[in-house]
Design brief:
The protein has 484 residues and is α+β, with helices and mostly antiparallel strands. Helices cover 32% and strands 9% of the residues. It contains 16 helices and ten strands. The strands form four sheets. Strands 1-4-8-5 form a four-stranded antiparallel β-sheet. A hairpin with a 5-residue loop joins strand 9 (453-454) and strand 10 (460-461). The chain is globular and about 75 Å long. The structure holds iron/sulfur cluster (2 copies). One iron/sulfur cluster is lined by residues 304-306, 310, 316, 343-344, 347-350, 411-414.
Length: 484
């Protein structure tokens, strides 16, 4: 391919503004604000990839390709035949005996607190087994799949740790399961008010002096009073959201939902395995508390003009603050201020990008509600959901396109991949002073960040659907979710 031709093709894929150029435009290179790390060379993996005949498969130089049907192990195709699955586990009769032996060894190690074999380790491993299969509110405490230990029946006491140790342990587990920005809330008389009064059918939620949660035909859920703590985490959404108004963008939405439910279910099994209650729910109508309230009060996020959680790592590009209500004591984390709420007073980018005029453009926040879909008592920019829902759900009739609307999520100044050094610099400045807020907001617009997909290098890719389907599989995060 001629060089000019190739360059023309490259610009179709990349409308790039390098970090160096961005920094230059901000005047930061001349200001000498530690820019060395920001001027590393821009990679061109996508361009290199599409120019190779292998398409999605790019092998390093030291891996050679062989002929079809001729792997490096020698095969005599005249001798090969299909496998008779009856021959699988020929020693099935031995399985019970081996299981008993496994349990004996595991119990001994657990009772002796052998590192890597304590109750928390068993509960953690068991969380990966058959997740997502049980009911929405709670899961049973079950026999551990690998070791066959049943904590209660085998006389193992519930996990004991200080609230600080418990929170650290839970944060480690949730992080591994896929949750981020992990926080905890201790329920107070005030924060009890962010719990819902009833479900979508009108059945009440209650707090009662009981040991186990329960539901009846007339009661959505009774939560034990002893469940005084809430473990909370962010569920990040992929940058494929940027393919706005297309069905493809919904991959990010439903991937985030399903991943969040998997994480939640694993957290439930983990905490149940420790011998404690773990009350969840689903992501829609069955929510015992408002997830935005939990995220904001526990310090995982600040409330934004969008009237939902905007987090330090993911901005508005996340599916919610997911949570588990538990009686496992957790050291609570405090609400945060990194200047997001203050930034929102003058930014208004999301409101300008809202095709339904659902987001407020007012200068001052207010206690006045736009409808009974708003929670009272917050002086904020209340969203008008009657205008938003049409664009999210009524996609066949609306002007939002087949994928509905996610404009506010992608427009948000803070919804940028945090590896872009410039954004870390801006975040630090925003947290310290509001003086540059209008300038930063205008820079965001000038660089067209609301229109494109921002790479870790600060490049803007204006046609992310092409990039998505042609991405370098070696470099892309598994599942498409940007997780660090
Ligand atoms: S999803 Fe779309 S319509 Fe709803 S608030 Fe966000 S930008 Fe507005
Ligand atoms: S786009 Fe601007 S106003 Fe809207 S939530 Fe983000 S920072 Fe706040």
């Amino acid at each position: 391919m001629m060089l000019k031709e190739r360059d023309a093709k490259m610009t179709k894929f990349h409308s790039t503004v390098s970090r160096r150029e961005f920094m230059k435009r901000l005047g930061l290179i001349s200001a000498g604000l530690g820019t060395a790390a920001a001027i590393s060379p821009i990679r061109h993996d996508i361009d290199e990839l599409i120019s190779t005949p292998e398409g999605g498969r790019k092998l390093p130089w030291y891996i050679k390709e062989r002929e079809f049907d001729n792997p490096s192990v020698e095969i005599d195709w005249t001798l090969q035949r299909g496998f008779d699955q009856r021959n699988y586990r020929q020693n099935a009769s031995k399985m019970a005996e081996w299981g008993a032996l496994t349990k004996k060894v595991s119990l001994e190690a657990l009772r002796n607190n052998v590192p890597g074999n304590t109750l928390k380790d068993h509960a953690f491993v068991d969380a990966f087994h058959r997740s997502g299969l049980d009911g929405p509110w709670s899961v049973p405490e079950r026999t551990f799949f690998v070791s066959q230990i049943n904590r209660a029946a085998d006389g193992i006491p519930a996990w004991q740790g200080s609230p600080e140790e418990n929170f650290k342990m839970c944060a480690s587990a949730v992080h591994y399961f896929g949750g981020r920005e992990i926080t905890a809330l201790q329920i107070s008389n005030n924060s009890r008010k962010i719990f819902c009064t009833n479900d979508a059918t009108g059945k009440p939620y209650t707090f009662e002096d009981i040991d186990e949660p329960y539901s009846t035909d007339t009661k959505a859920l009774a939560v034990p009073n002893k469940c005084q703590w809430v473990l909370v985490w962010s569920s990040p959404q992929s940058m494929i959201t940027k393919v706005n108004h297309s069905v493809l963008a919904k991959a990010s939405v439903f991937h985030a939902y399903s991943a969040a439910m998997d994480v939640r279910k694993r957290v439930q099994y983990f905490i149940r395995g420790l011998g404690y209650q773990a009350i969840g729910g689903d992501y829609a109508a069955k929510n015992v508390a408002t997830n935005t309230g939990l995220g904001v009060l526990s310090g995982g996020a600040e409330l934004g003009r969008v009237d939902y959680a905007v987090t330090p790592k993911f901005g508005a590009l996340m599916r919610g603050s997911y949570y588990i209500v538990t009686d496992l004591p957790l050291s609570p984390t405090k609400p945060i201020d990194m200047g997001i709420w203050r930034f929102c007073q003058t930014c208004k980018l999301c409101a300008g990008a809202c095709p339904g005029s659902a987001l407020s453009v007012a200068n001052e926040p207010t206690f006045d509600l736009t409808g009974n879909w708003n929670g009272p008592g917050r002086k904020c920019y209340h969203i008008d959901y009657s205008k938003c829902w049409r664009l999210i759900f009524d996609v066949g009739l609306s002007d939002a396109g087949p994928g509905g609307c996610n404009n506010c999520q992608t427009a948000c100044v803070f919804s940028k991949m945090q590896e872009a050094t410039i954004h870390e610099l801006i975040k630090g400045t925003v947290a310290a002073t509001p003086v540059f807020n209008t300038f930063f907001r205008n820079m965001d617009s000038a660089f067209g960040y609301g229109k494109g997909w921002v790479t870790p290098n600060g490049e803007i890719i204006e046609n992310p659907e092409d990039v998505f389907w042609n991405r370098n599989l070696e470099d892309s995060p598994s599942g498409g979710t940007v997780i660090r």
